[in-house]
Write a structure and sequence with these properties.
- By secondary structure, the protein is mainly alpha-helical.
- The protein is built from 66 helices and 17 strands.
- It is about 55% helix and about 5% strand.
- The strands form six sheets. The chain has a five-stranded mixed sheet.
């Protein structure tokens, strides 16, 4: 690379030599300043490549160091008379009072730039003694520039030579005058200190220098600047990590006051001093080191109630249970979810280790072994036979004894930990399908059970179902480590509180499951391992991971079975001393009830149910999940509610009148049914093949992993030179990328060339045998340009797209072209034409599969679905054949993306208990929802299965599986058959992951990854090179940018959406004549279009009361299609469907208050049409109910056998409802109020009489919510399907869709807002103005809230999840004022793209309210510079 910025081009060495001469000549002081300035400029634009070989590093460093140490006295050059004007100026400066200061400042700047350009120069700087000199420059003075530059050099040196900085006094100098530094210098000083603490030698003599700065680091924990606190926490984390090897030194630098400050920084809800995510990571490191290496400090942390802090952080609760309450059944997902493993690890270490001579001892189990096994165990010591998963739970150290003694001295500490955390820990285990996290949870529970007194366990047991929890673990038998912990807990509970758990373990099935384990053979597959086999298993299996499935193998299997057998002996002994009601009597009673339910007759339906109800309500324990599945109750209830017979309606009515009238009993039944389902399910989480899974925490890293693909062309149309190619391809790349790559090589298919193939590194077939397995053609590799960022497509595609947008800038014309009617005939004609047209396309074929693979399939998806997890299948390359085929064009309006057909997953084929539990859950759910009311105690949340939710959530965290469409069948089966088992958040994530398309899915993961990188500490953030490697480049979503006028928005939106058909580009909008761009104007555009669709003039929506004076329709009952529509309205419904779908995939909020009935009709649900009409138009529905009164009286007369035919006819003519006869209403077969809409042919001439009243009612209801809206719904569906299949929305309920698109309940409480927003740049959350703002927001009315959000974010609604889900985080900053104006003279301004509110520091709350409301009214519909 040439430095063409320098004069002389290649004369850089001469310039540097000249500069060095000027610096060396001490008598030429007049030229030092200009030489230093020139040197600083050169170094600022240089790098290592340009300086190597021409830069005499040692010479420059020597001279720069000498200048820094020079005397402040100025010398007068002898040739002063020969100076020109520039030299005289330089001389004057050098002899000024500040001359030497400026020279030293420039010398420091040169050193700083030198380290940046040539990192190896740091060693020269240290060698020439610059550290001590730089420390001297940090003394307070009137000139801040010199200390700032000196500290900058020290900061960079500390990265490479931290010990040299400490030895040279740099650490002390950086923090000595910390309180006198500017905020910028304070941050730099702490970064220097953080680097120094990376490798502190606690045994060296310089450790005293570290001790001296500890008071300063304690004080900086209380600083208001978040960055200072972050860096201080990093300093403490590194310092404590360095000292953890010595308990004495650790306890010497950490005292109770420091612990109190650190705990006070934890981000519990409502804590004004809470740290940001990076600092919280450092806090967890600190607590982990302390808890692991110091029993006394661990005990003090528990005394400071760190357990309660963890509870609040994980649950998001502002309070801690003061009584032994149970937390809510649904564990909230929050931003600290990823920190849970760290918190669980800290809890494990805070509690004392388990001793080896008691619970974990193998010797206590060996004596009870059968004789045949005892012979071999005599040859294997108990230590050798103990599995590693047991060994690592124990400790022999004196530290462990001290730890345990501290807890025995104050048992109340452990008691509090138990009642606060045990319910939470069980909830975490149930909700999170993560083995590591679950193992930590069970280990904490074992420690709590071991060290707790019996009374403490009794207290916990009153509110926590330990027995049901243990039964689930033992029934699932997922991993040996979890089973061992469950057996430990079972043994401890049966030993300490037998009066509770002797009976509970039988009722809940714990004894049943342990009996199964105890009777398993010691050897697996009939082969008893030899001693050598045991040793090999242990050596190979436990050196890496400790997650043996099932009950394990070898020693692990033997140990688990011995534990189970030992428990059976203990249980029999305890049961002998604690007689109880035997389980068979309970099961027999339940089996009798089950038989009655199966065989009862119509007259006994209610009686049979009442027996079951009496059993549940009259029993102290109720019924367990084990009893429910083993007594036949599930079968009986399922038969009772769903068996097809003429009496099914009577049985369901009896169930509604008995069980549904007792909410507490119904809730118990649902809970136990979910327990039975969780215990019996065996659905597995699909993970990538081990060869592709490198264990990285970064999900994007696995998406970028590459394999070599051999592309074998078949057919005469493939050029000979392209029939054997090898390319290096990302495993997550679609075949569409390969197709574009091949087309770009051949370029003869009449298909536009694409640069997306540039991500493929291709090899020629002749190079296959070479030693280099990653040979690639440099011309086919598109290097990453850092200036592009991470959310744009590559340069060529982006330029082409922007040119297209510029050429098609949307105008506000009202041309009728946009209002063309699309009829079904035209659609059919268009389809027929497309069948005749087509393109030559490349189709790929996997090995042993004659069908072509979809171009949307990923490379890994093909391997996952067609190959065994054997590395040889794709080593050294994976074979794919391809052909050139004629493919007809598809209609643009065709559905994009179809789910795989609904098939029962194989896990249910031999699992009738699980299948019947699912079917019964569905039957109960339907009954409950049909009878639900706003005051019902039972709702959809009661049916959420936390175990299945945790598994699905875990499955969706596998990006390669999701992107490759390799999700297991059970995920689709549940989402389509039993979606009610999952909460809204999980179902919505599933919808986003499986329906939005590959590009949007990748973009979403990339955004999440970048957000996670932002939350990392600066020292842990990936470098630009790491980002290049980890961020997928082949999927970047283009942005379709368009300018639209504010006039005739709906016409512009129609044109714009029509242009976007088939495009995956994210739509961005800018208004003509306005400066604002990006997210803010785009959100405002979606909001404005939403409002346009609600205009009365469009005649799209039904209105109960017609009012032509209103500009917008009344949305009291939600938007529902109007049966009185024009043909143009159909096109508008198509545009609406496209608009709604586009907003979803682009993650944009809209404001369309649909009626729930809209989606019920759209999805053709089985809802009663009369109930749908009641939702759409309650007034009309009430009128129809009155008309049904005539029919009711008519039926009564017809059934009255005492009347003659003549009398009946007379009586019918005199029937009245509300004092009015039917004939007096003058009804005909037209729509009420709209006589031009006929319900049947010639309807205006057909009066409504008693004879045809039923027909009239049926036709009217059908017209309103049936055939009258079919066309509108069909066009909405057609427009929506342009983006993705509208039927995929069925995973959400109609009411959830209503909340998603418009009407939702938002939390604007003071606590919620204060915990969600961020104050910065002059404000803190404690600032009076910010507090006034929070109070004002909490007091706002509904319309004011919408105006505020419209003004600050561009959308009148909060995103899903409310204030806490807003991204970027809503931030309030201080707006600076220019004299002579004061803060009260300014209005607030915003940056909608960043969710920034610039707020002046107003003098009072009243002024703030006035100014804010004025800005909201006047600034919500324009985007100008602020």
């Amino acid at each position: 690379m040439q430095f063409d910025l320098f004069t002389g081009g290649g004369d850089v060495a001469n310039r540097l030599r000249s500069i060095l001469n000027h610096l060396t000549n001490s008598s030429a002081g007049t030229s030092q300043v200009s030489a230093l300035q020139e040197l600083s400029e050169i170094l600022s634009i240089s790098n290592e490549d340009t300086l190597i070989g021409i830069f005499p590093c040692d010479g420059f460093v020597r001279e720069l160091t000498r200048i820094l140490s020079a005397s402040p006295e100025a010398s007068v050059p002898q040739d002063i008379d020969a100076m020109d004007e520039d030299d005289m100026i330089a001389f004057a400066l050098s002899n000024h009072t500040t001359g030497n200061i400026e020279t030293m400042t420039l010398a420091c700047q040169c050193l700083s730039n030198l380290i940046h350009a040539l990192p190896s120069s740091a060693s020269n700087i240290v060698a020439h003694g610059a550290i001590e000199i730089l420390c001297q420059k940090l003394e307070p003075s009137d000139y801040i520039d010199l200390p700032e530059q000196a500290l900058s050099v020290l900061e960079k040196l500390a990265v490479q030579f931290p010990r040299a900085i400490v030895q040279g006094g740099g650490l002390n100098a950086a923090l000595k005058h910390f309180h006198f530094f500017t905020i910028h210098l304070q941050r730099s000083a702490l970064k220097t200190a953080a680097s120094c603490f990376r490798s502190i030698d606690v045994t060296s003599s310089t450790f005293s220098n570290v001790i001296e700065v500890i008071p300063t680091l304690i004080e900086t924990l209380s600083y208001p600047d978040n960055t200072v606190v972050d860096d201080t926490c990093l300093c403490w984390a590194r310092l404590i990590d360095s000292c953890k090897a010595s308990k004495e030194q650790l306890e010497g630098i950490v005292n109770l006051d420091l612990l109190r400050k650190l705990v006070g920084l934890m981000p519990v809800p409502g804590n004004a001093n809470a740290v940001r995510p990076p600092a919280f990571t450092h806090l967890l490191r600190i607590f982990r080191a302390i808890s692991k290496h110091s029993p006394h400090l661990s005990y003090q942390l528990l005394e400071l109630d760190i357990a309660a802090s963890f509870y609040q952080i994980i649950t998001g609760s502002t309070a801690v249970p003061q009584d032994h309450g149970v937390i809510s059944s649904a564990l909230p997902l929050n931003k600290w979810k990823d920190s849970m493993p760290s918190m669980m690890s800290i809890l494990v270490d805070l509690l004392p280790p388990l001793p080896t001579d008691d619970l974990l001892s193998l010797d206590r189990l060996l004596d009870s072994e059968p004789v045949a096994s005892r012979t071999r165990s005599a040859r294997i010591s108990s230590n050798e036979g103990t599995p590693p998963l047991v060994k690592r739970r124990s400790s022999h150290s004196e530290k462990a004894d001290t730890h345990a003694q501290l807890f025995r001295s104050n048992p109340s500490i452990l008691k509090r930990v138990g009642y606060i955390l045990v319910p939470l820990l069980i909830e975490i285990y149930t909700s999170m399908a993560n083995f590591t996290l679950r193992e930590l949870v069970t280990h904490v529970l074992v420690k709590v059970a071991y060290f707790s007194e019996p009374e403490g366990l009794r207290t916990i047991s009153r509110h926590v179902s330990f027995s049901a929890f243990l039964a689930d673990i033992l029934a699932q038998r997922d991993y040996a480590a979890l089973i061992v912990d469950a057996l430990y807990q079972s043994e401890l509970l049966i030993t300490k509180v037998p009066e509770i758990y002797c009976e509970a373990f039988e009722i809940e099935g714990v004894l049943h499951e342990i009996n199964i384990i105890a009777n398993m053979p010691m050897e697996e597959d009939g082969v008893l391992p030899t001693d050598e086999t045991f040793a090999t298993i242990l050596a190979n299996r436990y050196t890496q991971r400790n997650n043996e499935v099932g009950i394990g193998q070898g020693h692990t299997r033997r140990y688990v079975i011995l534990l189970a057998q030992n428990f059976i002996r203990l249980y029999n002994s305890q049961a002998y001393h604690h007689p109880m009601t035997k389980q068979p009597s309970r099961l027999e009673k339940l089996q009798s009830i089950s038989n009655n339910l199966m065989q009862c007759k119509a007259e006994n339906y209610a009686i049979a149910l009442q027996d079951f109800l009496d059993y549940l309500s009259g029993n102290r324990i109720g019924i367990s999940g084990f009893e429910l599945s083993h007594s036949g109750i599930i079968d009986a209830l399922l038969h009772y509610l769903t068996h097809k017979s003429k009496d099914v309606a009577l049985r369901r009515a009896a169930f509604e009148n008995t069980v549904l009238q007792h909410p507490s009993v119904l809730k118990t039944l649902i809970d136990r049914l979910q327990e039975s389902l969780s215990r019996s399910e065996s659905f597995q989480i699909a993970t990538p093949f081990d060869a592709f899974n490198d264990g990285s925490d970064n999900p994007m890293a696995i998406l970028n992993k590459r394999i070599r693909v051999r592309l074998m062309g078949e057919g005469a149309r493939i050029p000979f030179e392209h029939r054997n190619l090898v390319a290096s391809v990302p495993i997550a790349a679609r075949l569409k990328n390969l197709e574009d790559y091949l087309i770009s090589r051949m370029g003869t298919l009449g298909t536009p060339l694409s640069s997306q193939g540039d991500d493929l590194d291709e090899n020629d077939e002749n190079d296959i045998g070479s030693e280099d397995e990653s040979i690639c053609d440099p011309e086919m590799v598109n290097p990453f340009d850092e200036e592009q960022g991470f959310d744009t497509d590559n340069e060529d595609d982006m330029m082409e797209l922007e040119r297209d947008v510029d050429e098609h800038t949307i105008t506000g014309t009202s041309s009728t072209e946009t209002q063309d009617t699309i009829t079904e005939t035209q659609i059919r004609e268009r389809t027929d034409q497309n069948k005749k047209r087509g393109n030559w396309k490349i189709q790929f074929y996997a090995k042993n599969n004659p069908k072509p693979v979809s171009a949307e399939s990923t490379l890994y998806g093909i391997i996952h679905q067609n190959e065994e997890p054997n590395r040889s299948a794709w080593t050294p390359y994976y074979r794919l054949s391809y052909k050139l085929s004629w493919v007809p064009e598809q209609d643009d309006d065709a559905s994009t993306g179809h789910r795989k057909s609904i098939q029962q997953p194989p896990e249910l084929d031999n699992n009738p208990t699980c299948l019947k539990a699912l079917e019964l859950s569905a039957a109960l759910y339907d009954l409950v929802m049909m009878n639900a009311s706003p005051t019902s105690n039972i709702n959809a949340q009661n049916f959420v299965n936390r175990t299945l939710t945790g598994k699905l959530q875990r499955q969706l965290e596998e990006p390669l599986i999701v992107a490759s469409n390799c999700l297991p069948d059970w995920t689709f089966f549940f989402m389509q058959k039993y979606p009610f088992l999952f909460p809204f958040e999980t179902r919505y994530q599933f919808l986003q992951s499986t329906s939005y398309g590959y590009s949007q899915l990748m973009a979403r993961w990339q955004t999440l990854q970048m957000r996670n990188n932002t939350n990392l500490p600066s020292s842990q953030r990936p470098s630009s090179d790491d980002l290049m490697r980890d961020q997928p480049l082949f999927h970047r979503v283009a942005r379709y940018k368009a300018k639209v006028p504010r006039t005739q928005l709906l016409v512009s939106a129609t044109k714009l959406l029509d242009q976007c058909v088939g495009s995956h580009a994210t739509l961005e909008v800018q208004y003509m004549g306005e400066e604002g761009t990006g997210l803010g104007p785009t959100l405002e555009f979606y909001t404005a279009i939403s409002k346009e669709f609600c205009k009365t003039s469009l005649r799209m929506w039904h209105e109960s009361e017609s009012n032509d004076d209103q500009e917008y329709v009344s949305t009291k009952h939600g938007l529902f299609p109007n049966v009185d529509y024009h043909q143009d309205t159909l096109k508008q419904f198509q545009t609406l469907g496209h608009f709604v779908a586009k907003a979803m995939v682009d993650f944009r909020m809209i404001d369309m208050p649909f009626s729930p009935a809209f989606f019920k009709v759209l999805f053709s649900t089985k809802d009663d049409p009369c109930m749908l009409l009641k939702e759409v138009d309650p007034v009309l529905s009430k009128s129809l109910d009155d008309l049904r009164g005539y029919l009711t009286q008519k039926k009564q007369l017809e059934s009255d056998k005492s009347l003659t035919g003549h009398k009946k006819a007379v009586a019918m003519r005199s029937i009245e409802v509300n004092g009015t006869r039917l004939e007096d209403l003058c009804l005909d077969f037209t729509l009420p109020g709209r006589p031009h809409i006929k319900l049947k042919k010639n309807g205006e001439n057909i009066p409504v009489t008693m004879r045809n009243l039923q027909e009239y009612l049926d036709l009217l209801v059908d017209k309103m919510v049936g055939t009258g809206v079919n066309e509108q719904m069909a066009m909405f569906r057609q427009g929506f399907n342009r983006v993705f299949n509208v039927d995929h929305l069925k995973v959400l309920t109609p009411h959830e869709l209503v909340a998603l698109f418009g009407n939702s309940v938002e939390d604007w409480s003071y606590q919620t807002i204060s915990s969600a927003i961020h104050a910065d740049h002059g404000f803190t959350l404690e600032s009076e103005t910010v507090q006034n703002l929070l109070t004002t927001l909490a007091e706002m009315k509904e319309e004011e809230r919408r105006d505020f959000l419209q003004f600050t974010t561009g959308s009148p609604r909060l995103p899903i999840g409310g204030w806490h889900a807003m991204r970027p985080v809503f931030t309030v900053v201080r707006k600076q004022c220019e004299p002579p104006l004061g803060a009260d003279d300014y209005l607030p301004s915003v940056m909608t793209c960043a969710n920034y509110l610039k707020l002046p520091d107003y003098s009072s709350k009243h002024v703030l309210q006035q100014r804010l409301l004025k800005s909201m009214r006047e600034g919500k519909n324009c985007f100008l510079l602020s």
